Amino acid sequence: YLGSYYHAHLFRFDPRIEIWEDLGQPAGEKDSFICSLTTAPDGKIWGGTFPSTHLFSYDPKTGVTRNFGRLDPNQYYAYPTAGDDGLIYCAIQFEKADIVVFDPVHETKTSLIPLVERKPGRVRLTKGRDGKVYARLSSSGRWFRIEEGKKLIEVPEADIPFPLTGLPDGRQFQIIDQKIVRIQNPLTKEVKEVPF
Q1: Rounded distance, CA 15 to CA 101, Å?
Q2: In 3-state terms, the chain is what percent helix, strand and coil (to 5)?
Q3: Are 153 and 145 spatial neighbours (Cβ–Cβ below 8 Å)?
Q4: How many Cβ atoms are within 10 Å of 57's Cβ, its own excluded?
Q5: Do 192 and 181 touch, CB atoms closer than 8 A?
Q6: What pTM was computed for the model?
Q7: Which of 26, 71, 117, 170 could disulfide-link to 53, CB 3.0 to 4.6 Å?
């Protein structure tokens, strides 16, 4: 799955037949681009958008797309990360950085950073190998583990089980010039480029 930079389309790539499928604009026609995508344990694809900070989901099993609306009324960028706990953690960027936790079961949104503490900067979210979500606030440079979707616990960076890179079968891929997916197999040295 890939979110487009122009017009916020969601695309699905089938590597078996090397075809891209346009799944439409899951957050509506007003958004410019999809900031990032994440996959939840149930297989749903979640995305966040610019400039509306919309959060949406796409269910590959049913083909159903849902738009859950704005995560922040005044900010522009939403970068979701799915936790193993079923919650969707969203980094809100840049003027007043925040972390918004979305509960898909109850469809509730909870801000983790009090308004008076939101500063300009970036929030980096990463899901560790332990399934927990970790956050780094650029305003302080400190790392936190998000506990139960409710509180930030400071942790040393050395204690974070960062995810391993690459695809499960060892292949690597990258997007070239917003037009081509290059898939590289480090074992066979095979390189394949697929336009989209």
Answers
A1: 33
A2: 5, 50, 45
A3: yes
A4: 21
A5: no
A6: 0.82
A7: 71
